[in-house]
Design brief:
629 residues; five-stranded parallel beta sheet; 27 helices; 16 strands; 42% helix
């Protein structure tokens, strides 16, 4: 189990074994390099900890604990977590500010405590076997190495995967393997487990929302954001920054420049295709802050050569093609630094996705439209839009509006932005597969989040829901693709005090008209070039759709239409053949769907069939960059 995760911790390894209990650890040394080996024991030997992550308020907590009489043997945050558990028990995670997954074994009570950070930045998977045994690890492959489960497809998670890029709740695609939810602890004793939620994101009641002026709030946001970045510079090793050219990474670069001596090391990745190359924006920020800038341009050959191995690293199908690019830039960064800061999390807290604006618009006007327009007229309009040519941009745009969709959130939000919407899945699946997923709600995790939130505005409800679901898959991508390169990534936008403060902001400071992340743009107005501030949300463009139409169509023939895929009996051959044809003829873009089917088949071959992916990833070579020092 331990050594299947050597990429996560190449700097050291440790084991603790005692009477049916085993703890294993691989170390990536970041703080107190000479000490802090794990598993780490309490002074009396009763507690043993294994821990992954960083606690950024460790110096403050260390001073508090030493002030109460506890003597430290190291200067690392692992000991702080251990001593907090020694003092506070299962309440210890409530004091931690950072990203973490840890396990503490109590020899005296024979109790195990697992905990995961509030937003789920660090992963933690587990299997609770029928005989009461508990297996846990940072990656699923370690659970498979233990024989905790025999790898098989969890059909109950399949509709969720098909709709939402990845399982969005606590289930995984492996039958019997679950995730510990963010903001939760798990206590095991005598074969039984108990989960407890120690944190949730709350929104103030109507009428108590922050009433100070916009300028004052923008100023405070800037101060809080700067603090979040400062805390994440805690390290005894070199740090860097993933610089995409978007406002999030640019803002962190601007904040870092005020806090560090010497040029910041920045790293960017792109593809040669013009529509997938945003390096000029990253260079613009690099020039502004005179960073030590490094770039890599990934070829299609490198991209697809790396794909099977990266599916192995991810443990599940790669939710997004950008995961591949993230690994390449991580390996480039690993040649220079051991820690990087990244911009994940701002979209789900500050309303960065255009789909929020579109959903609010469609919901508002859709409800009025249904109230004021006769059903027959609405049907006539819907039919007219449906009669437009299938590849028409007008039809594609109108088909995603209230003119063709009912004004409920399932239709306007979940279905509208799904990979395979609920209504599309029966036609995709075989009769046998449909029977196995009968009654499964592909949006169950989203519905649960909507029911749980105390948010009052539609925007805040959507932000909460995505924070509890969609954000999870982005954080797993960030963690696993960077840890595959043996570097740690930190996410300042998900500093939980900042997240809680942002939740209380009025909607106008998050989404104002068509301007997303308004408060961040205002806070950075004097710090970033106008071209960065005014850029529309792009995501990370990967031309995988064009590649599937061109030189890499053979991958569709192999992984989507091939004999092995057909023999699994999951997808209807005629349905996938039609999907491939409609995409490759150029009239329709189904790159998201085909990507999901290709990587799903790769995942099955790797984990269910036991096919070994290549041990070596393609070489990373830095391209000529606008390196300014």
């Amino acid at each position: 189990m331990r050594d299947s995760l050597v990429h996560r911790g190449p700097d050291g390894a440790g084991l603790y074994m005692d009477h049916g209990v085993g703890l294993g650890h691989r170390r990536l040394s970041i703080v107190d390099l000479a000490h802090g080996a794990q598993p780490m024991a309490s002074d009396d030997g009763e507690l043993q900890i294994v821990y992954n992550g960083e606690v950024f308020n460790h110096p403050m907590l260390m001073g508090e604990l030493e002030g109460s009489g506890r003597r430290y043997n190291t200067h690392c945050d692992t000991e702080t977590v251990l001593r907090l558990v020694e003092r506070d028990g299962a309440a210890a995670p409530e004091r931690l500010r950072g990203m973490f997954a840890f396990a503490v074994w109590n020899r005296r009570t024979r109790t195990l405590l697992l905990a995961r950070d509030r937003l789920g930045i660090k992963p933690l998977y587990y299997v609770h076997a029928d005989d009461g045994a508990l297996y846990f690890a940072s990656e699923i492959k370690a659970l498979l190495a233990a024989g905790a489960v025999s790898p098989s497809l969890n059909y109950g998670a399949l509709p969720d995967f098909l709709a939402n890029h990845a399982p969005s709740g606590n289930e995984t695609l492996f039958a019997g393997v679950r995730r510990l939810p963010p903001g939760h602890t798990l206590t095991w004793r005598d074969g039984k487990v108990e989960l407890r939620e120690y944190w949730d994101l709350h929104f103030p009641p109507a009428g108590t929302v922050e009433t100070r002026g916009d300028a004052e709030l923008v100023s405070e946001f800037g101060e809080r954001f700067q603090e979040a970045v400062r805390l994440r510079l805690m390290a005894d090793v070199p740090l860097g920054m993933f610089l995409s050219g978007g406002i999030d990474s640019a803002a962190i670069t601007a904040a870092m420049s005020k806090l560090v001596d010497g040029p910041i090391k920045t790293f960017s990745v792109a593809f040669a295709e013009r529509e997938a190359n945003e390096l000029r924006y990253a260079r613009m920020v690099s020039e502004r802050y005179r960073t030590d800038h490094h770039e890599i341009v990934v070829s299609p050959e490198q991209f697809f050569d790396a794909l099977p191995r990266l599916v192995w690293h991810e443990d599940e199908p790669l939710a997004h093609p950008s995961s591949v690019a993230l690994n390449f830039v991580s390996r480039l960064a690993a040649e220079h630094v051991k820690v990087v800061l990244t911009g994940e999390g701002s979209d789900e807290t500050l309303a960065g996705y255009n789909r929020y604006r579109a959903t609010i618009f469609n919901r508002t006007f859709g409800q009025r439209y249904e109230t004021l327009t006769p059903r027959a007229l609405r049907s006539l309009v819907r039919g007219g839009i449906g009669a437009l040519p299938g590849g028409s941009r007008v039809r594609q745009k109108l088909s995603r509006t209230f003119l063709t969709r009912s004004a409920d959130l399932d239709t306007l939000y979940f279905d509208n932005f799904a990979v395979f919407a609920r209504a599309d899945q029966p036609g995709l699946l075989t009769a046998a597969a449909r029977e196995r997923v009968a009654g499964v709600d592909p949006y169950a995790a989203y519905h649960a989040a909507l029911a749980a939130t105390d948010a009052h505005t539609l925007l805040d409800k959507l932000l909460y829901t995505d924070t509890k679901t969609y954000l999870h898959e982005l954080l797993m991508k960030q963690d696993q693709m960077s840890m595959a390169a043996s570097i740690e990534s930190r996410v300042p936008f998900l500093d939980h005090p900042l997240v809680e403060w942002v939740a209380a902001l009025p909607q106008r400071l998050k989404l104002r008209g068509v301007t997303t992340k308004w408060v961040l743009r205002e806070a950075m107005r004097d710090a970033l070039p106008p071209e960065i501030l005014s850029r529309k949300k792009m995501g990370f463009p990967v031309p995988v759709g064009a590649w599937f139409r061109g030189p890499y169509r053979h991958l569709l023939e192999e992984y989507v239409l091939g004999e092995r895929a057909r023999e699994r009996g999951i997808f209807q051959p005629d349905a996938v053949r039609s999907l491939v044809a409609r995409h490759c003829e150029g009239g329709e873009n189904h790159s998201e769907r085909l990507w999901a089917l290709v990587t799903f088949e790769m995942w099955q071959r790797t984990f269910l069939d036991g096919e070994e992916p290549s041990e070596e990833l393609p070489e990373v070579r830095a391209t000529a960059a606008a390196a300014l020092t």
